[in-house]
């Protein structure tokens, strides 16, 4: 048994040992601040930069309390994306394996019936995306979701995102089945504070409940990105972006790096994936137009380093914890500076070094300035571009690969499939609204 500081924060002995086995001994700032307060029964709003250990900050106190009386459904964790839900569920399962923990994942794109059966088995923790949990709340009987009426904890991970309009209806449905606010503990965590989150931090105290504990590690609004993150930009014309990307990814410096490339649209992700694949780069992709099984497989391949590069839309920008990622490329610049913080935060996690590069065309300059203002830091110019003669030469090869990709996508009706899917989703949404 070690002299882990988690013990002095009040975590159970078995959990301290489980953390220890994973070499997690010294709590991070957010963990030190939040664990004792959550154990006291307080609601908590925790703000800390990407990769600074927010998951354990809420998981450790919940698991400690659960192990004192491991009965029935104990806690619900909501997250905005399916992959993040799966990752959190894996962590709960790993931490609680010695205690026979039961964790259910309730996310879209997976079998509703299988999930209903899992819920009937009374899992201790339910890790869910709001849309699918709301579906169960609206359509399943008490034998499936009745246990939710007695949960002790509700966690909103990536709370700023979950509190946006996109999730409001589903979130309200999920919360409607839980015990009232004063009969459950509410834990909110985020890497980017928004007005909605701040407003909750200032909410009046509920009678008989300890006051909300609100904590931000060194004001994340002023220091929004990890210290170990290098931020650079490369100014370039739109039509050479693919060639530069290919050149950089295959250059001596980055040829072995694990890298996530963020684009703004699913169609761009598909074009890039095909183009790079035909140029023999080991790529995987992750976007919302892929079937869930493919999304899961892609992420597995990337995590296992079978694919060195992940091309992704913002479904991958939040929460994903893949320690080997050393390099994040913003192939397209996001419109919301907070999105940049989350994307770049897929690297430089837990004190590791990481790099973020922005591809900047003329039309992106204002967006980059807004990001620099948000992160309180000027980006440096990227200098590892390599030989421009080589890039010029590769331009022909890369352009040909892109043209072939576009032709293949056209033939397969990629755009059509998306339109069809969109129409299907819209009609599903209408039915959902009617029910
Ligand atoms: N006390 C600790 N000691 C060592 N490693 C830790 C500690 N706490 C967490 N970690 C590791 O740090 C990494 C990042 O943690 P986590 O995923 O919880 O970050 P986060 O703050 O939720 O980030 P994001 O805002 O991107 O969701 C994980 O790999 C986790 O296992």
UniProtKB/TrEMBL annotation:
Example GO biological process: rRNA processing
EC number: 3.6.4.13
Domain Helicase ATP-binding: 35-211
GO cellular component, one term: nucleus
Short sequence motif named Q motif, residue ranges: 4-32
Record's catalysed reaction(s): ATP + H2O = ADP + phosphate + H(+)
Catalytic EC class: hydrolase
Localization terms from the record: Nucleus
Entries under PROSITE patterns matching the protein: HELICASE_ATP_BIND_1 (PS51192), HELICASE_CTER (PS51194), Q_MOTIF (PS51195)
UniProt keyword terms in alphabetical order: ATP-binding, Helicase, Hydrolase, Nucleotide-binding, Nucleus, Ribosome biogenesis, RNA-binding, rRNA processing
Domain DEAD-box RNA helicase Q stretches: 4-32
Gene3D superfamilies in the cross-refs: P-loop containing nucleotide triphosphate hydrolases (3.40.50.300)
ATP-binding keyword on record: yes
Primary location group: nucleus
GO molecular function: ATP binding; hydrolase activity; RNA binding; RNA helicase activity
Classification via InterPro entries: DEAD/DEAH_box_helicase_dom, DEAD_box_RNA_helicase, Helicase_ATP-bd, Helicase_C-like, P-loop_NTPase, RNA_helicase_DEAD_Q_motif
Identification of the protein by name: RNA helicase
Organism: Kluyveromyces dobzhanskii CBS 2104
Organism placement in taxonomy: Eukaryota, Fungi, Dikarya, Ascomycota, Saccharomycotina
């Amino acid at each position: 048994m070690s002299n882990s500081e988690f013990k002095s924060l009040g975590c159970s002995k078995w959990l301290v040992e489980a953390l220890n086995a994973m070499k997690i001994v010294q709590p991070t700032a957010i963990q030190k601040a939040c664990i004792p307060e959550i154990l006291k029964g307080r609601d908590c709003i925790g703000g800390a930069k990407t990769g600074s250990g927010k998951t354990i900050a809420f998981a450790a106190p919940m698991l400690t309390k659960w192990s004192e009386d491991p009965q029935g459904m104990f806690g619900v964790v909501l997250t905005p994306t399916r992959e993040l839900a799966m990752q959190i569920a894996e962590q709960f399962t790993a931490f609680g394996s010695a205690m026979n923990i039961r964790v259910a994942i309730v996310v879209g794109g997976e079998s509703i019936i299988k999930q209903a059966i899992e819920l009937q088995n009374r899992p201790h923790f339910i890790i869910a995306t709001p849309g699918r949990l709301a579906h169960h709340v609206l359509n399943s009987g008490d034998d499936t979701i009745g246990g939710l009426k007695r949960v002790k904890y509700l966690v909103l991970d990536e709370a700023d995102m979950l509190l946006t309009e996109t999730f409001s209806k589903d979130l309200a449905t999920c919360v409607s089945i839980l015990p009232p606010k004063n009969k459950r503990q509410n834990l909110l965590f985020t890497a980017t504070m928004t007005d909605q989150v701040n407003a909750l931090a200032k909410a009046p105290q509920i009678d008989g409940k300890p006051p909300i504990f609100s904590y931000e590690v060194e004001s994340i609004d002023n220091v929004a990105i990890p210290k170990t993150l290098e931020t650079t930009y490369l100014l370039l014309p739109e039509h050479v972006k693919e060639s530069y990307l290919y050149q950089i990814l295959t250059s001596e410096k980055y040829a072995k790096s694990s890298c996530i490339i963020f684009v703004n649209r699913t169609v761009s992700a598909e074009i890039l994936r095909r183009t790079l694949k035909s140029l023999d780069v080991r790529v995987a992709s992750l976007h919302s137009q892929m079937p869930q099984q493919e999304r899961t497989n892609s992420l597995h391949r990337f995590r296992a380093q079978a694919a060195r590069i992940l091309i992704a839309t913002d479904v991958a920008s939040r929460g994903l914890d893949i320690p080997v990622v050393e390099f994040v490329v913003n192939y397209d610049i996001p419109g919301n500076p907070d999105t940049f913080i989350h994307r770049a935060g897929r690297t430089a996690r837990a004190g590791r070094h990481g790099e973020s590069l922005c591809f900047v065309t003329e039309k992106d300059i204002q967006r980059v300035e807004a990001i620099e203002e948000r992160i309180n830091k000027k980006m440096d110019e990227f200098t590892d571009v390599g030989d421009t003669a080589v890039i010029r030469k590769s331009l022909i090869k890369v352009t040909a690969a892109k043209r072939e990709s576009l032709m293949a996508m056209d033939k397969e009706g990629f755009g059509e499939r998306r339109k069809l899917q969109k129409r299907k989703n819209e009609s599903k949404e209408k039915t959902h609204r009617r029910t």
